[in-house]
Every structure is written in structure tokens, then in C-alpha cells.
Write the C-alpha cells for this entry.
Amino acid sequence: MIPGSAHLQELTRLPMSARGMALTFFAALFVNLLPWGQVRDILQPDAVALALLYFAVYQPARLPLAAAFGLGLVMDVANGNLLGHHALGYVAAAGAAMLMSRRILQFGVFRQALHVGFLYAVLLGVELLPGRLANNAPFAPTWWLACPIAAVLWPLVLSLATRRLRRGGDF
Amino acid sequence: MDYQPSSFFRRNMRLPLRMTLWAALSVGLMVADARFAFLHPVRGAASLALRPLEQVASAPLAVSEAVDQYLVGWSRLERDNRRLQAHERQLMQAVATQQALQTENANLRRLIDARARVAPTPISAEIIYSSQDPFSRKVTIDKGSRQGVVDGQAVMDAVGVVGQITRTGALSAEVTLLTDKSEAVPVQVVRNGLRAVVFGLGRDDVLNVPYQAPSADVNKGDVLVTSGVDGIYPQGLPVATVTAVERNPAEPFARIQARPLAGVQYHRQVLVLLNKEKPLPRVEPPPAPAPVRKKGHKK
């Protein structure tokens, strides 16, 4: 289930079309809008953020930052945040992932997952500030728990991505 | 091997710049959204576009609930039926008394020339999305301005107040829950009519009742209902029960905590009270008194 490093190398060489990316983001958005209820307060599995991080690391040249910005705005509308709150976090995390892309791709799945945990911390850290300023809410102690969870989910993301290889290319 | 250092470096050099630009745009948007109203129609249109996706995403839950209801056993239906019939008898009795009291109350109010009270019409709505953001407690419901929902209306479940409409789209609306940090509800203690204000704390199941003197007559177990003095919530809706009162004479105020009566984060069906009553006119503060000259203090 967990893809080997040879598969991962192959992933970087197989560019994804804009249509494929758009479909992936649409699916991730759908996952985010599912009625998660109480589970989300603790686990916060932000599928859109994970998809963004995947494309930023594996296809840094093909992912426009505008996509990160636009998806952030959509999440802001859905959540009723200030417009730009998630957009800022997504832009920061996707940008950081693009900058670190070459470095991250050297590693195997598990070390990559550690890096993804760090990138998710960038996302949460950037989102924390406006959240605190706009609505002086108490700090949720489970806030940073999302980092290890993102790291744990990374092999799953990659195994989903390598399915594309078996089908031999794009959607 | 084709090795193209120039394009690779160029791309990476430009990335921080692009990041800064997009980040600056985000910050600008946040400021604009917080300060000015011109982004509201944009948000309204976007939420309308997002609506079908939200609806489809909440479909699995609706289907599972429907299947659940279909599969309940005969005995349970029978039991429920008997329980509900008993409950209905009790309610009918209460309604009969209430009708008499209402007429009497209306007459008395007319006698003392008080404003007539308009009973709000409730419409039922379904929660289609609950916010992912740990900083705010908000849910989205499937009724909007087309159905007569307006900002400020109260939202209840069968037991008590859940929150308040804070943003209205054409077909959906956003409800800020009682437990949100920015939510405040003026209340009265049922037992003695003491007025107070209940604030959300941003945590589930806990509300704060600040600014009550240590000697205030509030006890554990007291029920708080809306007082209606804000002109937003109709009077007399159950809000919370007091769970803890801590009186320390050394402090200026007692520390009072309450728990919302309504299952603020458990239900899917809620009632929106379409309040036809016009909000109370805003009271202008009296003009500041003219500065007193020091001469006047001489004796």
C-alpha cells in the first residue's frame, strides 16, 4: 500500500494536466464539506490543504499560487471566516512547499511525512494570527494536533497518487 | 541530459515575490472584509454557488438517517407513539391555560398602554454545514432571505436558543451559536427576574455570565430565559441553566457559569423565528453636560 521510492520518483516525472488538478481539488473540497461533526474539531483533516501540499511538492512548476489563493477563498466562504484567512494560510504553506520541493523529494515516504507535518505547522501558524486578531477566542489546545495527523495521512495521499501510475498516466 | 539552470533558478527566484504578492492580497482582502461592506455581495454569490456542493456532501448523512428511520422496530414505534400521545395531552393542557393567560395578558397590556407583543413565526431549517474553524462556532442552514430570514433573527431547537442569524444568503444563512466568543444574549433569571447578559466563551457547553455583584441572587440550577430588552430575541425563550456560582467578596463580580439548554452542536433540525416585530428604536445618548467651571466649586 505504501509506495516505494521508485514509484515516487516516477510521480515527479508524470505531469498532471490542469483538468486533473482541478478534479482533484474538487474532490478534496467535497471531502471538506462532508458533515464531519465533532470529529473535525479534533482531527481537522483538511483534504484541500493536503492536496495543495501534494501538488506543491510533486508538481511545483505546474501549481499556480492563484489556485491556493482561490481554494482558500472558497474555504473562507464555506466556513464564514474573513475572506482571505484560509487563502493566506494556503498561499504560505503551498509556497513553502514549492521552495522545499527539491529537498523533500530526496527522501522516502516517512521522512517526507515529517516534512509535511512541518509544512502543515506553517499553515496553522499563519492561520492562527488572523484568527486570534479577528475573534479573540481562547486557544484550542488541539490546534497543533493537526500537524502529526497531516503527517500520518501523507502516505495515504501518496498511495492515492500512485494509483494514477498503474492506470498509466492522466485521468 | 538537458540541464537548464537558468530557467530553474529564475523560477525559484520569483517564487518568494509571488508568494508575497498573493499573501499581501489575502491580508488586504481580510482588512477590506472586516472594515467595509462592499465584499458582502461577492460572498453571497460565492455561497450560493457553493450551496449545491454542500447539499450533495450532506446527502450521505441524510440518506443514512432516512434508512435509520425506516429500520426502527415496531415496538419502538409503538412506545414512541404512546409517549408522544401522553406528552401531547400534557401540552394541550398547557396550551389551554396559555391561551387564557395570553388573552388576559393582552388585555392587561392594553390597559397599561404597553407595546403589544408580536409572536414570531417559526420556520424549520436544516443545518447543512458546520464551520471547520476552531475560532468561531457557526453553522450554515438551508433557509435564506427567499424564505424571509433576516440578519439578527433568533434560532432555536425544541428546547432553547441555539444562536442568531448573522449572515444571510439567498438560499442559506449563517448562524452564530451561543457558544461563539462574539455572541451575547440578554437574559433574565426565571425565578426572580434578575437581568443579566450571557456571553459565549468559544468553548462547547460553557457560557459566561459576567458583571453580577457577588451578592446577586443567582443560584446553581437557575434557568435563564431571554429578557427581550435588546429587541432582537423575543422574550421568554429558554437559554441556559446556571452550573456554577463562585462568590468571592474580594472581587468586584461573582463568577457565574452556565450551560446552554439547547443541544447547540448536536441537532440537525432547528427553528428560525421570523420576527416580524420592528427592532426597538435606538436610544440616542443624552448630550454631554456642559463643562463645569472650577469657580462653581468655591464655597
In short: The first helix of chain B runs from residue 5 to 35. Chain B has a mean pLDDT of 81. The two ends of chain B are 101 Å apart (CA to CA). Chain B touches chain A through 50 residues (CB under 8 Å).
